[in-house]
């Protein structure tokens, strides 16, 4: 009976909360929030980075269909948010953040198993400038979409290293450019605004630094290597 009573109380509380947030006529929290010219926040989240490879014809002639495999892992994100209101449904956002990720590259065409895998750990300082297009607010929720451009500084790029893959050193360019697309929902609470969002990041330029040997099995015959990323952020204002 005690368990049933506790479950009933929790269900009643959840129902009351849902009615307050999403009912037909909910009480609107933070009614003047979106009228602010400038406001700030911070975010925490997760990210998964990948690579998109483009190959020359000679790559397939040498290696058949054995393309490079990428095993992404989940990393973490933390950063700040600055929001400038441009008009009723349009905002400009700057979201600098620190992103840590790891990718494992597998080269199935390399016979030596000790040289077949490259572990690529990256620490990015990410500088996105985004336009936020918001829908009409419904009660205490307001969906939106994001689009914009970004620059990323890879602190683990090894760009200046004189060693290459023959010494076990995988090298990438330090600076990269991207375009980003995403969506999210603003939830208005009594004392703050909470925003979960998801965003795709698409590299615009080749990031690979080739080995000195043009016939390198790690970098030879690769026309481009571009970042692909997925961000899941939880923002508090």
From TrEMBL:
Residues 33-207 form the Outer membrane protein beta-barrel domain. Keywords: Signal. Residues 1-18 form the signal peptide. It comes from the Bacteria. This is Outer membrane protein beta-barrel domain-containing protein.
